[in-house]
Automatic annotation (TrEMBL):
Example GO biological process: denitrification pathway
Protein role: Nitrous-oxide reductase is part of a bacterial respiratory system which is activated under anaerobic conditions in the presence of nitrate or nitrous oxide.
PANTHER family named in the record: CYTOCHROME C OXIDASE SUBUNIT II, NITROUS-OXIDE REDUCTASE
Name under which the protein is recorded: Nitrous-oxide reductase
SUPFAM superfamilies named in the record: Cupredoxins, Nitrous oxide reductase, N-terminal domain
Organism: Marinobacter subterrani
Entry PTM: Predicted to be exported by the Tat system. The position of the signal peptide cleavage has not been experimentally proven.
Length: 632
């Protein structure tokens, strides 16, 4: 945090342009106070000036009532959710349940969420790593956020206008979706995602040997969320990224050895960065040049060694992160077991695929040595890269152009700074770094261990997401942010790039099926409070206006399958109601103008209270009703 030696600097630093004018005024005022007290003027004013300078640098402070400049979307790791933070304050704004069950919103409980979860609603766990925002022409367009689930091999899409998940797709024929990035140009047509583990095909127990095992690179159509194609690869796949021409995607492979044991995965000095030629893959799909596997109809193409669809670039060693520079020039693979990063020139890939290069390594233009355990790299848009060093517990800032010069034999130092972080960083992410707009203001480093940085909370520790100011020459650590299991990655987007709705529109597709059912039942959701019986299925339609449900009592028979539809007629921003049926495992959110529904079996005779569990009104406690269940 604040370094003591900053306070001993002779002259105060003036705030840079763009920093808060008010903070600068604060600095001047502070200096004035020091002078007025007349206490040891020279020393005091120097200290006061230094403190003021420190204060001026604290442009990460967001005061009460002020808003952040960036949205940050954090993966929730094995909590299975996505979190929304304000940056630079690092205040948590919202949680978006995705692969988990959430009792506040009813995710995994309501019919609307179960419909999104589909068959996978039988799982209540997930392992989300890589949140990425849809793009148009290489810029965040704020429409969707996509995220992987390694635990149950899924990809989810979140609508950013309402910040709810609206589609989840289970990827067939593979296990464990890990690396995920989006096509940037001309727009996000595909969500590229890597399946990590090799499995036999068919995987029906008839053959568990490695000979018939492989894994695949997958592309999901961003609009339909159907799998567009799968490409069989050699080895395995870890992380991925796409370029700024729309032609290429590139993935790391740490297990070129195809080993089952740990020692085996480290046998080769180089594994691969695998480049996928998207144009050729699309053409092959068009030509019908594919097969299918099992019951799935997804086109499966063979991209193993010798294929025209892929190229395998040898890179050291068990590489992990793969990051495209925002100028569109380079894929950078992070060496993990090698102290190096490998810089691949994207403009040489056409020649590589055309067979004009002697060696795959001819596309490598630099391989800077950075420190121990490089995992991920991010960019400031000014030609510098920032690489996390897991083993060294540092972030290394280095200059790409100078690294290339050094690779060509010039005597230049490409390392700009190494900054200690706390501790063992995985991903790092600079503001807008995955887009053409990379602005080099903030860097978030997601440290895996927090050790002594926070009050102890038992054997399980929070992680530590650290905020670093990278707007100047020097990186400055400004904030420690404890987070719960386990944000692998995050993405920072300018606040004007996200447009949210304040209340729902009545025709929102999120509850289209409730509208359809109401129509079939002759119900006007916005007006009616009625109970419809359909055999042993009972549909209870009710409205809500703070602090009242439209129905405060309804009768069903023991064993009935009851569906409660609630339409919140409130139109005032922030007046969300809830519905909780006591002792029935039923709980949900109904935000202004939203319709939510939940289905349960009324298996216990007697009186059962339901109540509003979102504080909505002074008489919120009084917002309640009774379900009367007649004994069968
Ligand atoms: S991975 Cu976790 S630190 Cu899943 Cu992107 Cu690298
Ligand atoms: Cu409605 Cu509380
Ligand atoms: Ca390896």
């Amino acid at each position: 945090m604040k370094k003591r030696d900053d306070l001993t600097k002779d002259a105060p630093e003036l705030p840079e342009s763009g920093q808060s004018r008010r903070r600068f005024m604060g600095a001047a005022a502070l200096a004035g106070v020091a002078g007025a007290t007349g206490l040891g003027a020279a020393v005091m004013s120097r200290e006061a000036f230094a403190a003021a300078a420190e204060d001026a640098r604290n442009n990460w402070v967001v005061h009460p009532g002020e808003l952040d400049e960036y949205y940050g979307f954090w993966s929730g790791g094995h909590s299975g959710e996505v979190r929304v933070l304000g940056v630079p304050s690092m205040r948590e704004l919202m949680r978006i349940p995705v692969f988990n069950v959430d009792s506040a919103t009813g995710w995994g409980i309501t019919n609307e969420s179960k419909q999104v979860l589909g068959d996978s609603s039988r799982f209540s766990n997930g392992d989300a790593h890589h949140p990425h925002i849809s793009m148009t022409d290489g810029r965040y367009d704020g429409r969707y956020l996509f995220i992987n689930d390694k635990a149950n091999t899924r990809v989810a899409r979140i609508r950013l206008d309402i910040m709810k998940c609206d589609k989840i797709t289970t990827i067939p024929n593979v296990q464990a979706i890990h690396g995920l990035r989006l096509q940037k140009v001309p727009k996000t047509k595909y969500v590229f995602c890597n399946a990590e583990y090799v499995i036999p095909h068919p995987n029906d127990g008839s053959d568990t040997s490695l000979e018939n095992s492989f894994t695949m690179f997958n592309a999901v159509d961003a609009e339909t969320m159907e799998v567009a194609f799968q490409v069989i690869v050699d080895g395995n796949l870890d992380n991925t990224d796409a370029d700024y021409t729309g032609k290429y995607a590139c993935s790391t492979c740490y297990n070129s050895e195809k080993a089952l044991d740990l020692a085996g995965t480290m046998r080769n000095d180089r594994d691969w960065a695998v480049v996928f030629n998207i144009e050729r893959i699309e053409q092959a799909v068009k030509n019908g040049d594919f097969k299918t596997l099992g019951d799935s109809k997804v086109p499966v193409l063979d991209g193993r060694a010798g294929s025209e669809l892929t190229r395998y670039i040898p890179v050291p060693k068990n590489p992990h992160g793969l990051n495209t520079s925002p100028d569109g020039k380079y894929f950078i693979a992070n060496g993990k077991l090698s102290p190096t990063c490998t810089v691949i020139a994207i403009d040489k890939l056409d020649d590589l695929f055309a067979g004009k290069l002697k060696d795959e390594r001819d596309v490598v233009v630099a391989e800077p040595e950075l420190g121990l355990g490089p995992l991920h790299t991010t960019y400031d848009g000014r030609g510098n890269a920032y690489t996390t060093l897991f083993i060294d517990s540092q972030v290394c800032k280095w200059n790409i152009a100078d690294a290339i010069k050094h690779y060509n034999g010039e005597k230049v130092d490409y390392i700009r700074q190494k900054l200690d972080v706390h501790y063992q960083p995985g991903h790092n992410h600079a503001s807008l770094t995955e887009s053409r707009d990379a602005d080099g203001k903030w860097l978030v480093v997601l440290s895996k261990f927090s050790k002594d940085r926070f009050l102890p909370v038992g054997p399980l520790h929070p992680e530590n997401d650290q905020l670093i100011d990278i707007s100047g020459e020097e990186m400055k650590l400004v904030h420690d942010g404890p987070t719960f299991a386990e944000p692998h990655d995050c993405i920072l987007v300018r606040r004007d790039q996200i447009k949210t709705q304040k209340i729902y529109t009545r025709d929102d597709p999120f509850f289209a099926s409730a509208r359809e059912q109401a129509k079939k039942d002759g119900i006007v959701l916005e007006a009616d409070n009625k109970v419809i019986r359909d055999g042993n299925k009972v549909r209870v339609y009710m409205t809500s206006v703070a602090p009242m449900y439209g129905t405060t009592e309804f009768k069903v028979k023991q064993g009935d399958e009851v569906t409660v539809f609630i339409t919140n007629l409130d139109t005032i921003e922030d007046v969300t109601h809830g519905f909780c049926m006591v002792n029935h495992g039923v709980s949900m959110e109904i935000s202004p103008q939203q319709t939510s529904s939940v289905t349960f079996v009324a298996d216990q005779p007697g009186v059962h209270w339901y109540y509003c569990n979102w504080f909505c009104h002074a008489l919120h406690m009084e917002m309640r009703g009774r379900m009367l269940v007649e004994k069968a």
